[in-house]
Amino acid sequence: MDDIIIIGAGPAGLTAAIYALRAGKSALLIEAKTYGGQIVNAARIDNYPGLPGISGFEFAQKLYEQATALGARIVYETAVAIEDKGETKTVKTSAPNEYEGKAVIIATGARNKPMGLAREDKLLGRGVSYCATCDGMFFRGKDVAVFGGGRIAVEDALFLSEYCAKVYVIHSARNFGAAPADVERLKARENVELLLGSTVTKLIGEEKLSAVEVTSKSDGSVREISAAGLFVAIGQMPDNGAFANTVDLDEKGYVAADEGCRTKTPGVYAAGDCRAKEVRQLTTAAADGTVAALAACGA
Fold this sequence. Notes:
- The structure is a single chain.
- With 299 residues, this protein is of the alpha/beta class.
- It folds into two domains: 2-110 and 238-298, FAD/NAD(P)-binding domain, CATH 3.50.50; 120-232, FAD/NAD(P)-binding domain.
- Helices cover 24% and strands 27% of the residues.
- The strands form four sheets. Strands 1, 2, 3, 4, 5, 6 and 17 form a seven-stranded mixed beta sheet that branches.
- The longest helix has 17 residues, at 282-298.
- The model has no long low-confidence stretch (mean pLDDT 94).
């Protein structure tokens, strides 16, 4: 039996493991995909104190190495349920396996939100992508589009503008939800065209994407844009449905937990982007991991 089971090995989960292990507790991380979470896709991190310019991959690697050097164990399985047994908790996975722990920290993060358009799945990896830093170099010298207007979308567009011939930024609102300095940098790029107040309504292309249909939200006018790639950055969504019998979820599916990261079930905590809260940043994920681990250690 482990002292603490952590579901998810992103920044929140790995930080929780580090704090738990430094407190003399054992920690098991259960990760469905790979360690690091979505931050591994960031080409450059400039908003984490003390580490300006570090890549997301390097940041995640350092976290992983620090946690495992302290004794963290990690299994790559998908957690499908948490069973509350009072003094202990059982985490069941799709393997199927069962892991027993004295406390559980849910740190599953959030995943990219799809557009919900016809043939989106078919064209995924054939022009449609949710990760500019992962796939952007495949489109060097070509015309591409970014759909979204938040921080990730603006960062994606800036990154792509360094390598692509033309970058269209399609955003349903008139204003961006990103740092003003980054927005100004984007507007200054000569190969960037902003299509504000518009949305993507159709994907064009048989075996691979060749163009996107863009519809104005104000007058309904339609424009077809030639694009070899479409990078989707319209937000994220949690994947916590498997734990609904143990914790409360809000209307969007995020885990309800207080500022101490405590859920309604004693001994079960939530940390990082999977938790219902106002701000989701790398720094707040790490902070949640710290708070949740210390609370779990004192439980």
